Amino acid sequence: MILAVDHDKHSLETHRANFPGLAVDADLSDTAAIHQVSGLLEGLDVDVLAGGPPCQPFSLAGQPKLRSLVEQGVRPDEDERRDLWAAMLEIAERIQPKAVLMENVPGMALGDESEIVRTMAARLEDVGYFVDYKIVNASDYGVPQKRQRLIFVALRHGNGFVWPAASASQVTVNDAIGDLPSLGTALGERCQAYGGSESDFQREARVGLGADDSGKVWDHITRPVRDDDREAFGLMTSDTDYGALPERLRRYRSDIFCDKYKKLDSGGLSRTITAHLAKDGYWYIHPTENRTLSVREAARIQTFPDRFRFEGTRSHAFRQIGNAAPPALMEAVGKALVAALEGRDEALLPKSHRTLQVRRQLHRRLLEWQERRSGPWSQQGEPWAVLVSILCGRQGSRDDLAATALMQWPGPEAIDGTSRRTLAHSLGNNSRAREIARRIKDAARAVQLHDWSVADVARAAEIGATEADWLAAVGLQERNLVPTTGALRVADRLLGAESRTRSESRLNLAKVVTSAAEPLAVSVALAVLARTVCRPRSPKCGDCPVNDLCEASETNVSLIQPRVAA
Q1: 392 pLDDT exceeds 80?
Q2: Is the pLDDT reported for residue 74 higher than 60?
Q3: Which CB contacts under 8 angstroms, 24+ apart, belong to 328-332?
Q4: What is the pLDDT of residues 415-470, one digit of tens each?
Q5: Among 402, 401, 397, which residue's Cα sits nearest to residue 532?
Q6: Which long-range contacts (CB under 8 A, 24 or more apart) does 530-533 make?
Q7: Which of 349, 385, 532 is CA-nearest to residue 471?
Q8: pTM (2 decimals)?
């Protein structure tokens, strides 16, 4: 390692104590700092640029707290940490390392935030990198906790990347910390004697200790526990909710803080270790002792080796541990990265080489195909047409009926003075037409009263969350991506991926639309393709405009057939 950058005093001191190389204090939200760091690296043949921009702004768990702090005036509305990924990207573009590696929370690539990873991928692809990213479970790589992370990889000159295989078995909390000395009611000491090691994890954790530290464990220190908390901890198991404790032992409202206390399961995985551990340890109660975790136990669960020391106070150490990427996870990814750089991944799948040129061809064909089939449901920037189409048929299935309605009432104001009976008569004058007429009438009134407030219009028109999202994204163009179930299905098939979760499918959709000049138009085309051609059962592959670019087209039956529950 030749250079490390942080803007936290204690993190820098920890790095200097454990690693070689220069450690620079720089605030990368400042343009001058970006130039400073880039200047230190320009002209060098850098193998890997790795980083983990602060994840709290993207964390689903942390967003309610951040919003609360903004409302209280404690934190500014604009969080400059959100843009530190851009600083890392700018440095990568300037120094052109052989590989770029970034770690963050899944929230950075899901929902509206997928624009960030798509932007990173597009810009790096433009300068010759092969890019891939994935949400991984840290527990699959020897980390004894429930922790999902986004891993973003870019390799120069179009090298492919093979994701590391998961471990054969998971490591439990007891595997990780069962050998550390019992503290009882004590707080522990800076240095203590080890007990015997019982698991492979424990033996591996002790590797690399110097001769002077042999048989010693450092930083096995916890925080004080109140007597009432200690009593509460003693009544708990790993399945106990905070509200199940006797009322006299509850210091917080159980309706709001239903998981305020969490005892870890000795034979299972820990909950995600976060920087909040620096504030209190209630989420991390020791599985067999009536206390919260020690610094060394938290480090073990994050897979730091025992030779790794943390500078600063106990709280500083907890914050550094919670902010870190688990070393075991990053070691697995790092080895796969080295294998790719050295050309040892000879069995790369063809889909790993999906090039920018191929994707642009896919975008062009989809847009040309969609242009010839545009209906009211998919008319971007035409909220009334989209809304009427939704009301006439689920997911725009009756665009013909919507077209009839729109010919007579092209806008909400055109319905003023029109009776519900007249409106229903024009749509067929049956019970279904009368219901549609009522909802269109109510929707028109809501539009005029609330000026296209999606929540108000959706409530008046009695449409669900999925339809409201479509109205906002397509009709009002409030987003540049719309992850309908159909669009996700098509994205999975195009990439030949059998996604286990919706989050994985959302990442695949982001990959498909990356570098699209009109990402919303492409995702709309995917949704229409899903409705008309790439159906859940018996897809019409022969009618698909991108059939030859699809990894699952008729050649991979398992990805095309619907899943059957066991």
Answers
A1: yes
A2: no
A3: 328/138, 328/141, 328/142, 328/143, 328/303, 329/136, 329/138, 329/141, 329/142, 329/143, 329/147, 329/149, 329/303, 330/103, 331/141, 332/141, 332/142, 332/164
A4: 877 777 887 887 887 888 888 888 898 999 999 999 999 999 999 999 999 899 99
A5: 397
A6: 530/484, 530/485, 530/486, 530/487, 530/489, 530/490, 531/395, 531/396, 531/397, 531/486, 532/373
A7: 385
A8: 0.85
Alpha-carbon distance 346 to 168, whole Å?
23
Location of structure tokens 């059939």:
547
Q: How far is CA 68 from the centre of its chain?
A: 22
Name the 3-class secondary structure at 220. Answer: strand
The band of 394, judged by pLDDT with boundaries at 50, 70 and 90, is confident
Domains and CATH numbers, the chain: 3-163+331-351 (3.40.50.150), 173-311 (3.90.120.10), 356-372+481-560 (1.10.1670.10), 381-475 (1.10.340)
Residue whose structure tokens are 């090691």: 197
Instruction: Tell me how far apart the terminal alpha carbons of the chain are, to the nearest angstrom.
Output: 49
Tokens of 403: 């077209």
- Mean pLDDT in residue range 283-294: 96
